[in-house]
Amino acid sequence: MKTWKKRTKAVHEGIRRSQYNEVSEAIFLTQGFVYDTAEDAEARFIKAGDDEFIYARYGNPTVAMFEDRIAALEGAEDGFATASGMAAVNGALTSMLRSGDHVVSARALFGSCLYILEEILTRYGVEVTLVDGTDLVAWKNAIRPDTKAVFFESISNPTLEVIDITAVSKLAHAVDATVIVDNVFATPVFSDAIAQGADVVVYSATKHIDGQGRALGGVILGTKEFIRGTVEPYMKHTGGSMSPFTAWMMLKGLETIDLRVRAQTATAQFLAEHLAADGALTQVIYPGLDTHPQHALTQAQMGAGGTVLAIDAGSQERAFKLLNALDIWTISNNLGDAKSIGTHPATTTHQRLSDETKAMLGITPGLIRLSVGLEDPDDLLNDLRGAIAAA
Q1: Which domain CATH number covers 53?
Q2: How many domains, in total, are found in the chain?
């Protein structure tokens, strides 16, 4: 199986068939499991085998299938599936950190990630240093001999800065710090984060993995020692594990993720090139454009620009007019969906940030994040052009 390409692994890895030899993965909707004897129960609580389960909060056959499959795609030894993407971010960080530990993080992050770093971790005595994620000198100056972990989004939300995973990992590993990467925008299709130096990768499975707006989910990926020795004890006792039905939906999502993400990325490239050439917007931001500051890094690290672009309409008033004039594009705050979605970060996903912080991060009043879906590229472009003209 290790010689299979990602697209094949996304369909076949991790399957556990019951005695009925079903084609589609079975949903084990059970909260608990029974034992033949009291001695068997005792033995399983002491040490459960790889295919033995105790309680759905600890693990489940359907969930295990999803964990095995996504770990194989990412090139990780193991994974722990969580109730949401933020449960994955929180679990990866909180499970390994203690009072007095030091974390260095890129400051360009999703609003909830910043909340965990600035509000939750610091509340319990963790010291957090925020840096410009694209500035390797800033990383070098911030990482200390006692730094426990570094954290960043490989492509930042929503301004699409691209972080050099290999370079930052090298700096972190020089002091034995753990590298935790939120890899949502890169997707498992284009990601080689672990091969490039990341120790831990987290995904919001809500995004491209489900990709159809149905369910919340997340996953933490890393070494078996980290996942089972550090993450699992924390997650199973705090209750952030994924449900079996959600895991089944995520398994079905993985079967088509390669086809969906590649189609969405091709459309995003098409839209970005045409919108940039039109010259009707203040700015078009897309890592796949050669005008993007980290374009060369994007090509080396991912080989493609991803499914999301950002545009600047020049003001909040124009941004709202543009969004309200769209016909095909949906106004929402998700991304990675089969439906194309427009989001105004300054008033939604990042609204809790101060105006000063928004300005520092490049989240202008006119910025719109565009998550490209599976619709016809020409229809999406014409819809955007009409809305831009209306604004």
Answers
A1: 3.40.640.10
A2: 2
* Residue 28 in domain: yes
**Of 186, 219, 253, which residue constitutes the final position of a domain?**
253
The CA distance from 273 to 278, in Å, is: 9
Same structural domain, 275 and 230: no
Beta strands in 247-379 (DSSP E): 283-285, 308-312, 330-331, 341-343, 367-371
H or E stretch covering 379: helix 377-390
- The boundaries of the domain holding residue 20 are 6-253
Output the CA torsion sign for 276, 266, 333, 287.
negative
Same domain? 175 vs 85: yes
pLDDT digit string (tens) for the chain, length 391 residues: 578 999 999 999 999 998 989 999 999 999 999 999 999 999 999 988 888 999 999 999 999 999 999 999 999 999 999 999 999 999 999 999 999 999 999 999 988 999 999 999 999 999 999 999 999 999 999 999 999 999 999 999 999 999 999 999 999 999 999 999 999 999 999 999 999 999 999 999 999 999 999 999 999 999 999 999 999 999 999 999 999 999 999 999 999 999 999 999 999 999 999 999 999 999 999 999 999 999 999 999 999 999 999 999 999 999 999 999 999 999 999 999 999 999 999 999 898 888 998 998 999 999 999 999 999 999 999 999 999 999 9
Assess if residue 1 is contained within a domain: no
- The first and second tokens of residue 262, run together, are 């590649």
| β-strand pairing of 127-131 with 102-106 | parallel
